């Protein structure tokens, strides 16, 4: 394990732009044995083979890492996640370009290694098709999962353009395969023009809860979060965040943006609160297409903060015992 | 008429980035005879000769088309505009660079062809000077019109820098020429530092209703929309949307941006609701300066959605009978 | 003194993109003698030697000037600041690259010249380290100052990476040196992960008021502004605005952006209102990293409007007597 | 068939930014019956599923069309290709995202339609994997082909990352499958660090001629072109141009750029001269990743000119009889 | 007159990014009386009303100034132009948006003021239509002029899209009106697909010399320069440089780029040499569309150097007596 | 030591965009003990505190790493440097923002660790001021060094803007301090307008050889390289490459670009050839300001290849014995 902070030990922090590129400057290892005692393992899943429109999410994991700021106390929550949780960067899953099936296996296997060591996996996408792999890996350990899913789109297509494995289909497959329990699956932020009656019919059959963007607008985010907590209860839950749930102004670097979306203020608060109130066993943040350098890439930046707020909530929950 | 979907007929949709570039992938024709039975004709007006600051709106129409997503049911309204309305892309008006007068004639003539066929014209700008041409064409058919005008600026200058025909003057000319009825003219979103007492004095003389950005902030968009409906009543009405009414974060690609503007959540809802409650006979969306590719251009993207929400409202109204 | 408007005198305004580059097209001088009778002197401080992450603010002053729109009446406030106040562009302080100490002296001296002439200095940064120089210059004339400080970060570090003079430390030094009165120092918009207990402990010792971003979210900006006015009272006050207080969507061009920030609607209103209600003796706007041309640079644009709203508030106060 | 020029008939040309988006403003059809009498059919192949590094070429065909300038006489060659050849834009092949196999079929079928009508297909990529489909379609009509291949890379991998179908393998498959005659296959512009001994050994076995970038540097482009003509002789020949053969300064928008490449002056001249001296039965230009609007996208622009120079050479050959 | 260097007097130079924005940091005046004794007056002409494709050159003059580096000795020529010549920045001509005729008058008048004072005007465009105004002003003083014209296009159209006044027509009008002597008019760098037989026929009638890009390629720039000097002789000569004569890699920010163009090495040398060997009475550099900040805008940067090399040549000539 | 290839072991290479970010995907360590047996240690020096114009080079080292392609045989040289040399990425020197002196110490110390282990240091800047630290470290081991210095500027200022430590002064200090032997110091590519007589006088006194850009243009790069080899002979030599020696088209991401520069074809060949023919004991490549992602950043890309060509030359020399 390499700790990027070592060379800057006397200052207690290092500049974000210098030193080994890891998530939030945390220690790095690719050795499963070194995961012992680790609370959270951050894993990159740099894929975009299965997107339906603009590609580029393969560059997401590095960009999210590069947008990190140093650890420190969350000014609203009053807790520094990194002082409560032992977080490591477990590197990228060994994905392959133009081979989505082997990439999925690689992601599932790498996430599985983290889980085997008792760590909560936090996966940096990549396109949303990675959810099939990472949620499956978590369900293999924890059984059928609850799912909190922030997104513009339901991603419950049976197929997209006749293709069964797509970034628009993972949730359909996870529910059908029993890895996600439809009655404990909450979608938040839906808007736009997809999907249609078929998919929503299937969703109703499986008891899936859809909370639309216009409900956030009308009822406020706190009410929506309460509803999600009510549905999800105490069981093991996975959090998946597609950055396109945000309005494109806040996350322009994504492949299927839809105007009229959430604000970071709402989304970040919701992630932290849900992590505090639910029993999260894993998370991913997906669909970041980087275009800039370091924190100049506002989409990667907000994705980094989505993770960090979630870690803060996990730390709050742990502190609360 | 060419239907870009034909080659993808077996999938029911085509990728946004492939096939003939038309609005929302709708059929394309330049033949007025083929407009028979068409409900909505989308027309490009790629001009920017008359702007006062940053140019580039001549690239707007193509960019708005390229930011389209496929048709589908509006997740809040529960209706797919394209299954209710027959929409065609009628191509661009044959504008000329550096000849604003002939461009205006070309726009007026092309919009007139759509009107003659009984279609509602939806014009993609271009700078706001096109409103003089497209509103005039509508007024020639429907008589003096009501006007709903989303904008930072009133565009009611007698002249800008001594120039009588400018993107800052169309509304003055339309009212003076009797094509717009001042008592049925509502401006929404005004802010910034223009115009001055003279122009507002003239506006008062003509009974024009100005709803400022700070009123949206203080009273909420629903109240503003109600007031607009009250003023406009049942008469024929034109909707003109300058994307600079949005805050620059949401529409950075525009020539005279002004911080402190509307959110897409409000604007999109307002366009749909107004289209539902008013009798629209035409619309335009203007002042988009593209800088990116496909949906990566957030300004073109939100402009496309402004049109689509309006079409959704028109479809709702038609469904309601 | 050169008035950029002269060549366009017959039109009463000039295009923003043409003529001598000055703030809002106002007259330009570098001669202290010509400051007699001037109400506001705009001064550039193009520095970035002391930043901790992304540099580039040395290009800020020119970009803010280039994002200007012409003077005119503020549509909400109903007053044209430039018709009430005599504003000149006093040029840039003669800073030097790679010599932060001499740059600070140059800024302090140049601001001092404006103050000596009775003008209110408005300083365009530059990184936030310039606040040490410009506030000190004001305090030399007016005595210990109240400070309204919009920012994500407190900038009250004793040191950053072991460096005592940084864009993260000016407020510590100003309070310690007695130029800012801690009991009349209000921070607005704090969020993120910095600083820690030490710094907040020091802040409490000095009676500094911290108003966090989550308080703006929960209580509304009007309440926050009221609280600031209450703390600051009637004494001489300096306004310092770090554009990173805005959400990165609204100010992407800044070095340490933090998602979940203020909207321009709130910030611009707050600056104007505070300028109206408080006795401002100086202001600065800092941390703009330009990337675009003219008003296409949305960060420079909003920074320009931050100044203009403040001038509007000052003009309102002066009008009120 | 729709002729975008019709609406501008009185001017003899239309602005590049206006009207239906087709290659060089040429007529558009998707109807094979309308290809009768057509000399050249331009076909888009918007794919990037099989790339090994940066994706985005799916946006290539539209960008190449949008970078067109109007037809006119080539100032060096003294001939207007469009007055000699009847060129139509035959639209895009109905490719699908995330389904490379069906996309390849679609490309091969669409190119086959053009060939069946007697037209020379000119295919706008897309990534280089499309060459397998479009060359195969040509070989089905003309028998085993000669191949002139401008590229940094040989694209003769058996597999890339264990994947047999990739943008790094089409030439291997075409030769192995007998669609390209190794003894009439000339690669021009090779440089960098790929492939290795295995691939070059295989190339030698098949008699493939490799002309490296350093040979262009040392011997001049005219000598290289002479050598290619010598190898290719009079048989049917396909021209495939990967824009990464150019130095990245001239074609920054490509997925695997390699510094030290060709200049457009050399490449454009070579394409025209080869088209004049060889019997071309088809061509493609590939690996364009657009990032800008219209001719502001320099990579799309040079790709458009690569096609146009080739058409000029074909026209010269036809004129010469 | 204001000298931006004054505040940095003790260092002998100022940072490029600081201080009043003028060409090369030279003194600024708008007062004709202060032009007495001035050798060269730099004048901005920020227009783009008459372009046929991509606009944006109205931002050119400021960008060219902002790309300046400090004066100093030319390392090849061994002379510092600014120590030989007294250069001032005479500001921008008072152009108006959307009023090309009045803008042309303003340019002609402002250039005339410089000429009346005995200064050589150096005009920073703006689109190429400004040449009609600035050359006319020079011809009014010096009589019919020789013209050295670097460009991809001849700009000798009678009209473009039916418009007689365009950036594609100034040279036609200047020759027809007798301001340029066709027998002393040399075009250098022509390529691409415009104009056609009509225009070249007209050119032959007027004895205009066209030196094509392929001649530079085949004969070398030195031979081309020799030929130009031979044609132009000792008479008064104007130099006009359209940056699109460069390959788009070197000048991407221009409205009608054409691949296969000149290198800066050739163009800069040629400008300096021509200025040394000919009797220049004025120059302009046109068609710069800025997109970046300071020297990061490579097109503005090379335009600045085109001016500076020309000034160096003028200084060499003056030194030689 | 962590080998990023491990997870992709079965494919023999990994995608450039995936896995731990190291130079060319080589193993990573921060432990000096692990440098035993290493031939080349790559070290990042992410600084820009001492630049005189555009900053941003602190992001250079990561960008250069991210622009890597996999190892492989050099197609001209016929050798794979990474199979001859054992290369490791030794991480970044622990630099600090806003503390140039401590950053220089950190660089010198880190480079010294590599040297102590017998490895050749290859330093990725950062601005050119790092040369003072890295050359000094090499001279401490090898005695006064020869220096091959590709650059637009001599960087031999005594001071820049009165500042003695700047990116414009390292060579002056290295020669004055005896770390570089003036008689074995060759500058290649000088052009533009700096420095002046004083600096060149000092250079002559120290026997420094200046080879100007115009000499490359007139004599060819091979002759220039021969001259450099002649001057440098067999002694220990350091290679320092400022990417601004390239024309800005090829390296737009740099702080003080100067048109009319070298081509990558010449520069890459020269670096390889010099590394083959000289006894290099260290190198750096500096002044890269990244703006893009991965190989889309053409400046970082060419910087990566500058290193790689140099490694190829070192490998050739080693193979030759």
Helix content of chain A: 25-40%
CATH class of chain A: Alpha Beta
Gyration radius over CA of chain A: 18 Å
Distance between the termini of chain A: 29 Å
Quaternary assembly: homohexamer
Average pLDDT level of chain A:
97
Shape of chain A: globular
Q: Which CATH architecture of chain A?
A: 3-Layer(aba) Sandwich
Organism (chains A, B, C, D, E, F): Conexibacter woesei (strain DSM 14684 / CCUG 47730 / CIP 108061 / JCM 11494 / NBRC 100937 / ID131577)
Binding site for Mn(2+) (chains A, B, C, D, E, F): 128, 151, 153, 155, 242, 244
Cofactor (chains A, B, C, D, E, F): Mn(2+)
Pfam families (chains A, B, C, D, E, F): Arginase
Structure description:
The structure is a homohexamer of 321-residue chains. Chain A is α/β, with parallel strands linked by helices and 321 residues long. Chain A has a single domain, classed as 3-Layer(aba) Sandwich (Arginase, Chain A). Chain A is 35% helix and 17% strand. In chain A, helix 9 (264-277) packs parallel to helix 10. The longest helix of chain A is centred in the last third of the chain and has 23 residues, at 298-320. Chain A is globular and about 60 Å long. The two termini of chain A are 29 Å apart. Chains in contact: A-B, A-C, A-D, A-F, B-C, B-D, B-E, C-E, C-F, D-E, D-F, E-F. The interface between A and F is medium-sized, with 35 and 35 residues. Chains A, B, C, D, E, F: Belongs to the arginase family. Agmatinase subfamily.
